[in-house]
Amino acid sequence: MHIDRPLRSLRRAIVVIAVLSVGLPLTSSAQVTTRKPPTRVPKEPARLPVPLGPAKYVKEAGTMWTFDAPPLDYWKQTYGFTPDSAWLNHVRLASVRLPGCSASFVSARGLVLTNHHCARACVASASPADTNYNTTGFVAATLADERKCSTLYVDQLQSISDVTQQIRGAVTAKTADAQVQQRDSAINRVQTACQTSTHLRCEVVTLYQGGMYSLYRYQRYADVRLVMVPEEEAAFFGGDPDNFTYPRYDLDMALLRVYQNDSPMVVTDYLKWSKSGAREGDLVFVTGNPGSTGRLLTLAQMEYLRDVQYPFTLAAFDRTIAVLNTLSAQSAENKRTYENLIFNIENSKKAITGYRAGLLDTTIMARKAAFERDLRARVDADPALRPKYGSAWTEIANAEKQLTAMAAQSNYYGFSFNPPFGSQLLNWAGALVRLPAQSALPDAKRLPQYRADGLARIRQSVLVDQPIDSTTERMELTSFLKAVQQGLPPNDPYRAVVLGVRAPEDVAASLLSGTRLASLAVRQALLDGGKALVDTSTDPMVVLARKIAPIADQTQAAQARLDDIISASTDKVGQALFAVYNTKLPPDATFTLRITDGVVKGYAYNGTIAPYKTTFYGMFGHATAFDDKPPFHLPDRWMQQRAKMDLTTPLDFVSTNDIIGGNSGSPVINRDGELVGLIFDGNIESLPNRFIFTDDVARSVSVSSRAIIEALRNVYESTRLAEELDGK
Amino acid sequence: MHIDRPLRSLRRAIVVIAVLSVGLPLTSSAQVTTRKPPTRVPKEPARLPVPLGPAKYVKEAGTMWTFDAPPLDYWKQTYGFTPDSAWLNHVRLASVRLPGCSASFVSARGLVLTNHHCARACVASASPADTNYNTTGFVAATLADERKCSTLYVDQLQSISDVTQQIRGAVTAKTADAQVQQRDSAINRVQTACQTSTHLRCEVVTLYQGGMYSLYRYQRYADVRLVMVPEEEAAFFGGDPDNFTYPRYDLDMALLRVYQNDSPMVVTDYLKWSKSGAREGDLVFVTGNPGSTGRLLTLAQMEYLRDVQYPFTLAAFDRTIAVLNTLSAQSAENKRTYENLIFNIENSKKAITGYRAGLLDTTIMARKAAFERDLRARVDADPALRPKYGSAWTEIANAEKQLTAMAAQSNYYGFSFNPPFGSQLLNWAGALVRLPAQSALPDAKRLPQYRADGLARIRQSVLVDQPIDSTTERMELTSFLKAVQQGLPPNDPYRAVVLGVRAPEDVAASLLSGTRLASLAVRQALLDGGKALVDTSTDPMVVLARKIAPIADQTQAAQARLDDIISASTDKVGQALFAVYNTKLPPDATFTLRITDGVVKGYAYNGTIAPYKTTFYGMFGHATAFDDKPPFHLPDRWMQQRAKMDLTTPLDFVSTNDIIGGNSGSPVINRDGELVGLIFDGNIESLPNRFIFTDDVARSVSVSSRAIIEALRNVYESTRLAEELDGK
To answer: A615 vs B605: CB contact, 8 Å cut-off?
Structure first.
C-alpha cells in the first residue's frame, strides 16, 4: 500500500504514477475512474413485487458514514452502542487529514499519529543531507530535537453543513454545459463566502454524485515537526510481497507534532491511549478519509472493468514486467535499477487482480445485481424519480456496449498504452504532432488529456531533459508493436500505418536508427517551430506520429463522447440512490472524514484460521523464516533490543472496518473513544471491497496501540514519548 | 492429517472411518476408490501427428519412484546427481514401514524416527493406566526406561524382484473369473514359496494395475519400544484447523527403538543426522510408503468424482455437520462430545474440497487431457496394444455415463448414506432384513459389502451393545429423509415407499416411537430368528426396511456390475501405460517403498510468499497470536524452557517432494544420505496431487532435523538422545 516510494527518474515517475492511478488503496485521493464501462447489456431487471417496503440499509454499500449522518439506530441495534454527540464531536476533532492520508491527535501537546508511509515526504525534508530518516529511523530525544517538515500540513474538520439547496437552486439553465457552469460557480461562491467569514479552509463536497452537497470547514495547521519514525525495515517489514496481505508484522507508524507560535499546540480533543489495546470481538471505529470507492458503479460498468479494461491493463503490466525482467537479467546494475519498479508493478497487478476477483465472484456479483434490481424497481415505482433517473442504467449499458465494441481500438490506437507503457520517443513524437492542433482548439473541443492544465503539462513533458536508454527504448517499442500485431487484425488501419507487413523488430529498428528526438534541442526546435515545422519534419518518429494522429484522435474523441454520457448517467444513478435511501446508505468515498464501525476478528484463510492479531514473536518468526533476507530483514536496533522486549505484545491486528486508500494513518478507536490501533493496510481479500463491500474475509489491518508503546519504550528507548502517549 | 484420534464409541468410529476412507492423505493404506466415475462422455481424442516419438517422462505422473527403477538419467539431468547403488541400498534399508505409516532408522542402536501421529497406538499401549503419554509427552531417561509397545512392528524392505512373467504365465483361462482365480493363486504360490525359502515376509505388489508384478521381501522387527514422544499440543500444534496447511509449527515426531533379544538392535544402515538441516534450494529425497494415488484414473473417472461423487459426499458432510452443530448448541456436554467429530468431518471436507479443486482447475485438467490423449494415441498406433487396450477408455466412459444417470438412486437408495451418515436404527433394520437373504447366496452373487468377511462384520455390527440417543437419532433420520425428499422426484419408488406424502419429521417420529430395535435383545432375537421372524416382524423400522431392500438391492447390484466393468478397464489402462512407458513413469502409490526427489522451496501464497521454513520464534508467534487458546496452546514445558531455546532454529520446512497418505513419518534425505527432515503433512495446495501431480505451489511439510535436536536438548533435556542422534 505504499505508493510514494522514491522514484529514480521522472520518466519512471510517470510510469509509476500511471500504474498507481489505476487505483491502489490508501494514500490516493483520486476518484475511481468511471471513464470506461461494460461488455454485455444488462438484462432488463425483473420487477420486484410491489409494494417494496421502506428502503433499508444494505451491507453492500459498506460503512463509510459521514459525521453529519451517523447511523445511530443501526449501531444501537447491531452493537448496543449509542454514542452521544460529545463522543462524536470529540473523535471527529481528534481525527485529522494529511495530504493523501489520515491521522489523529494523540496527546494534549499536539502529537499526531500517522503511518510511516504517510510521513515520507515530511521525514525526507527533515533529514540531514547525508542521511534519510525514512531508512534509518529517527527519535527526537527532547522537544528541541523535533525537526520541522517543509511539506506537511494537518487539516482538522471543524463543521459540516448541508448546502444542497444553495447549489441546486443556482442551476436554472437548460443545457448541460451551462448547468455545469452554474453549479461550479455556486460551489465557488459558497466556498469563498465561507472562507471569508470563517477564515477556515472550506470545501464543498459532492456526495452521491450530486445527490447531496456538503460544506466541510477545516482548520489547517502548517507547522508540523517530525518527532519519531521507525526504520523503513520495521515500518514496511515484508515489503512489497507482504503489501496488501495479512498476517502482517509492521510497525507502520510516525509521530509528528503540531506547533503554534513555536510551541507544541495545546490540544483538547485528542485520543487517549488504550491500555488494553484491541481484543478479539471488540467493537472498533475507524475515523479517517477514504479516497475513492466505486460502489455506485452499475453492473454494466463493473462488467466492463472486469471483462475489458482490467484484462487490458493486466496484459500491459505483464508486457512491461517481461521487458524489465529481460533488462534485469542483463546486468547487476539493471537488476538494482528495475527491482523496485518491478515490485511496484507487481503490486499494482496484485491490486487489480484483487479488484477483479470480486467482479469475477458470482456470489458478490449476484448481491450487486440484487441491489441494483431493487434500486431500479424503487426508482421505477416512484413517479417523481422515474422520469429523472429511470433510464440512466440503460444509457450507461448502451454506452458501455459501444465502448466494448471499440475496445481494441481504444486500447491500441495512440502512441503508447494507457497507462503509458511503451516508447518514450513515440510518446514525444505524438505530443509534438498533437500540440499545435490541440492548442488551436477551444478547451471543450480538445482531447480530454489536453483540457484545462493538461496542455501545459504535456508541453512540459516534451521538454524534460531525460536521457534515453536505447536498449530499453528498443525493447519497449518492440513490445508495444508486437502487442499491436497480436491485438489488431491485419486489415486494421492503425496496424496498417504502423506495421504494414513488416516485423515489429524491423519497424522498431528503423524508427530508432533514424529518429533524433532523443535530443532535447531537437524537440525544443520542433515545439518552437509549431505546425509548420512538424508537418514537414522527416524524422521517422514524427512522420509515423503524423500518420497515427488522425486515426487515434477519431477513436479518442468517440470514446470521450461515450465517457461523457456515462459520467452524466452515473451522476443520475448517485442522485437516484440518494433520493431513495437518503443517508441510510453511506456515499462513495470522497477523501473526506468518515466513521466506519467494525469488529476485531480473525477469518478463514489458507485452509485454516488467520488470527485476529500478530505479536512481536511472530515478527521475529517471519524474519528468521526468511533467513533475515530483505525485505524480511529487521533493523539492527531491533536485533539488539530483542532481549528487552516483551515479545508477546500484540503487533498488528485485523478488524471488519470499511477502509480504502486515504485511510492510511486513521486511528482505530474503542467504545470509550480510546485509541487501540492505527490503520495501515487491508488484507488481499479486502481488495474487492472497492466495488462491493463484504466482511466475511475482508479485513483492515492496523498497528496495535500496545506495539507502539512497547517499541517506544524498549526498542527506541524513548520514555518521553511513551509517557506522553500514556498520558503521564 | 491425523486420522487416528481417540474415538468416543464404536458408532462414532464407524462414522469417522467411513469419512476418512474417502481418502485423507497419510496414515491410510487404502486404495483410492475407483468404484464410481464420469458425468460426461469424453470426446473422442484428437489424433496426434504420427510419428509420436519415444514416450518420455511427464511430470503429471509425479515422482514416486520404485527402488528397482530409479530414474538415474532424469536425476542426473535435473540435479546433476548420480547416486550409486550403495547409496540407494543404504537409504532403502534405513527406510522402514509401520502399520499405515513410514519411518527410518536413525542410530546404530536401533532408534526409529516417525511421527507422533503414527505412534499413537504404541504410545497409548506404553502409557500407565492413569495417564496418556500421547497427551503428556514421554522421555525415557535411560535405556531401561524405554517402554514396550504392544501394537507396533517395523518392516524393512530387503529386496525386490520382478515376478510379472510368473504371474502372467499362470493365467491361461478364457473367462475373467477363472483368470482372476489363476492370478490370485499364482500370487499366493509366489508369496508362500518366498516365505518358506527366506523366512522373510513376502508380498507380491501389483503395479500399474497389473502391468507389472513385483515381489517385495521384508524383515519384520516386532519388539518396538517407546523412547520419546512430545506432548500432543507440540506435535499437533494448531490442531485440525492447521491440518493440511502451511506455514506450520509442529514437532510431529516420535522416537522408538527396535530391540532384539532384549537389547537395542545393532543397525548398520541408519541415516546420519545432518548438522545443517535443509537449506533453501537443496535437493532432497523422501523415502517412504505412499498409500494410494489416483493418477491413472481416466478423465471420465475424474469427471465423475468431480461432478457426481464428491458433491454428494460434501453434501452429506454438510448435513451431518448441521445435525452436530444443532446438537452442540443444546448443551456444553454435547459441545464437548461432538467437537472433535465436527473437526474431523471439517477436515475430511477440507481434503475432498482440495481434491476436487484440482479437478475443477481447467489448467490441471487440460494437462491430464493432453496426457490421456497422448497415451491413447500411442496405444492406437501400436498394433500389439490397440486390440488389448484400445477400447478401455470408452468402456469406462460408457459405464460412468450409466452411473451418472443412476447417481441419485445410488446415493439415496438404501438405509443411510455412503459414507454411512443417518439413522443407526434404520441401518440395523436394513442389516437384519438383508442378512438372511445375503447369507443364502454364493459369495460372488452377494452385494459387494456382504462378500468375503463383510457378512460376518455386518452381523457383528448389529450386535454391538451401543446406547441410542433418541435426539440424535431423530435428527439424523429426519435429516436423511429431508435429503431424500429434496434429492428424489415425487414419483420415485424409493421416496414413495419411505415418505409417501408425509413430512420427513412425521415419518421419523412415527418410526422412532414404534421401533424396539434400540434393544440389543430385540436385535439378537431377530437375527437368531432369521428370515421367518424378520418377514413377520411388525416393528415399523423392520417393516420399512423390508420395503426398501428390494428397491435398493436392485440399484446396488446394477452399480456393482458397472463398477466391475470400470475396474477391469482401469486395469487395462494401467497395463497400457506400462506397455507404453515401462518404468519411465512411476506407478500409482501402493503403500510400498518409493523414493521421490524434490527441492526445498517456498511458494506463492496469500498474495505473498510462503517462506521455505518456519522457526521456533514463529511457533511462539502463532501461539501468542491466538492468545494461547487451544488448539494453539503450547505445553507448559515449552513455556518454561523458552528462555533456554535458540528460537531462530528452523522448525518445519517445505519441499516439492511427491507424497501422500502413508508417507507420514518418512525421512527427508540430502545428497549425502543424511536426514534433514521428517515428513508429516502436505500443504492445502498439495491435495489435488492425489490425481495429477504439480509442484508450482504444492508442497510437502516436514519437521526440521535441527528442531528435533534443539527440542531434545533444550525442551526435553535429553542429552542422551540428542547425542545418540548426533552420532556421539
So the answer is: no
